[in-house]
Structure to design on (414 residues):
C-alpha cells in the first residue's frame, strides 16, 4: 500500500514538472512484488480468456423490497391509490422477494433455462390465469397466493446458420420498456402503460435468430395475455425485431396478436410496442416507449348493447431520463400519457367513456451500502375526469388528480 501511495505522489510530481517544462517524460513502472503493471494486466486478460465453466454461464439474481406509499390527498376505497398496480396500497407493503437463475445457450453448452420464483404482495399481481389464479379471481387478486412462478422455461440453440434458439415454457413478455422487477427500472412505481397497456407473462414457445450483427428476429406462439390455462381454443402470436443500428442505441419493435376473450376464437386483440434506449451520453440513460393496441368486438362494449362500433383501442407514450451524479446517486424522471378511449382497460369510467391519464414521476435513488438501495419518489397522476379517491364504498370518484410520495428500500443479493 505504501508503494502504491508513493507511486501516486511520484506520478503527480513528475506530471507537474513535465507540464512546467513543456515536456512529458514517462516514469518507470512501479514494482508490484516481482511483476510490473503490464504483466499484471496481461495475467488478468489471460484469466478473462479462459473458457467459461458450466456454472460460469449461469446468472443469479435475487432481491427483497419493501415500501411505504403515502397519498397526499388521502387514499380512497380500501386505502388504495387508484389506477396503480404494484404500489396499489397507500401504506407499508412488503413488495417482493425474488430468486432467479438463468442460463443462455452457448456453443459449449447449447441448452439453457430460466427459473424465477417470487413472494410478497406484488406477486399476487403477476399471476397468470391457471397458476395461483382462477377465472373467478379479479384484480387486485388480494385473496390469491402471495407467491408466484414468474418464469420457468427451457431453451436450446439449434446449429442452423448463426444459431436458431428455441425457448419454451413460461416467460415474461417481450413488450414494454419497464419490467416486473422494480430494482431494474428507473422508477419505483410502474407506468400506466405497463399496468394497462400490455401483458406481463406468456406460456408458449419462441424462435430467435440473428439475421445480422445488428438485428435479431424473434417470433412464436403463446396461450395468451397472462394466461397459462387457455380461456379459448385459439393461440396468440408474438414477436420482436431487436436492432442496434448504432453503438449505444437499441431499438425494439414488439407485437402480439390473437383472441383473448373467453370462449371466443375470432375477436383478436393486437398490441404494437416500440422501445428506444440510448446510453451514449456519459452517466445518462434515455428511453422512449410507445404503445398502440386495439381489440375487435371487445366484450364489455358488446355487453353494453349501446354501441354499433364495438372496437376498443388504447395507446400511450412515455419518456424516461436518468442521470448518475455519482456511483451511488441517481435521479430519474418519467413523463407519460395513456389514453383509454373506451375505458375498457382501466375501468375508471363507465364503458364507452374516454379516460385520458397523465403522470409525472421523479425518483431519487441512493446506494446506501453494497446491495442496499433506497428510493424516494414523488408522483403526480391526472385525468380528464374524476377517477381518483373513490368514496361511498368505492362508487363515487371525488378527484381528478392524485399525488403520492413513496419511500422504498431494496437489497440485491447478487
Amino acid at each position: 500500500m505504501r508503494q502504491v501511495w508513493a507511486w501516486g505522489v511520484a506520478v503527480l510530481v513528475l506530471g507537474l514538472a513535465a507540464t512546467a517544462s513543456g515536456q512529458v517524460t514517462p516514469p518507470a513502472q512501479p514494482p508490484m512484488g516481482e511483476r510490473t503493471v503490464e504483466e499484471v494486466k496481461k495475467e488478468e486478460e489471460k484469466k478473462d480468456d479462459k473458457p467459461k465453466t458450466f456454472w460460469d454461464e449461469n446468472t443469479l439474481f435475487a432481491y427483497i423490497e419493501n415500501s411505504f406509499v403515502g397519498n397526499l390527498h388521502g387514499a380512497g376505497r380500501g386505502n388504495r391509490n387508484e389506477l396503480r398496480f404494484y404500489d396499489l396500497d397507500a401504506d407499508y407493503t412488503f413488495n417482493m422477494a425474488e430468486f432467479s437463475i438463468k442460463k443462455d445457450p452457448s456453443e459449449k453448452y447449447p441448452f439453457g433455462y430460466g427459473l424465477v420464483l417470487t413472494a410478497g404482495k406484488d406477486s399476487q399481481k403477476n399471476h397468470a390465469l391457471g397458476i395461483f389464479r382462477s377465472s373467478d379471481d379479479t384484480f387486485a387478486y388480494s385473496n390469491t397466493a402471495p407467491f408466484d412462478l414468474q418464469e420457468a422455461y427451457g431453451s436450446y440453440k439449434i446449429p442452423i446458420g448463426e444459431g436458431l434458439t428455441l425457448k419454451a415454457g413460461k416467460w415474461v413478455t417481450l413488450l414494454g420498456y419497464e419490467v416486473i422487477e422494480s430494482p431494474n427500472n428507473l422508477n419505483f412505481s410502474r407506468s400506466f402503460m405497463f399496468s394497462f397497456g400490455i401483458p406481463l407473462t406468456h406460456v408458449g414457445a419462441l424462435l430467435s435468430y440473428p439475421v445480422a450483427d445488428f438485428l435479431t428476429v424473434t417470433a412464436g406462439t403463446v396461450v395468451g395475455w397472462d394466461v397459462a390455462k387457455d380461456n379459448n381454443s385459439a393461440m396468440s402470436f408474438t414477436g420482436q425485431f431487436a436492432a442496434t443500428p448504432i453503438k449505444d442505441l437499441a431499438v425494439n419493435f414488439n407485437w402480439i396478436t390473437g383472441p383473448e376473450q373467453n370462449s371466443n376464437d375470432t375477436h383478436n386483440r393486437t398490441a404494437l410496442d416500440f422501445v428506444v434506449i440510448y446510453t451514449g451520453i456519459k452517466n445518462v440513460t434515455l428511453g422512449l416507449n410507445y404503445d398502440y393496441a386495439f381489440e375487435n368486438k371487445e366484450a364489455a362494449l358488446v355487453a353494453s348493447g349501446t354501441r354499433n362500433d364495438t372496437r376498443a383501442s388504447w395507446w400511450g407514450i412515455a419518456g424516461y431520463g436518468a442521470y448518475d451524479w455519482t456511483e451511488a446517486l441517481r435521479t430519474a424522471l418519467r413523463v407519460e400519457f395513456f389514453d383509454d378511449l373506451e375505458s375498457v382497460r382501466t375501468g375508471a369510467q363507465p364503458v364507452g367513456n374516454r379516460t385520458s391519464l397523465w403522470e409525472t414521476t421523479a425518483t431519487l435513488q441512493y446506494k446506501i451500502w453494497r446491495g442496499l438501495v433506497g428510493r424516494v419518489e414523488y408522483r403526480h397522476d391526472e385525468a380528464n375526469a374524476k377517477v381518483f379517491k373513490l368514496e361511498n364504498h368505492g362508487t363515487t370518484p371525488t378527484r381528478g388528480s392524485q399525488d403520492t410520495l413513496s419511500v422504498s428500500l431494496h437489497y440485491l443479493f447478487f
Notes: Residues 266 and 413 are 46 Å apart (CA to CA). Confidence is low (pLDDT under 50) at residues 1-35.
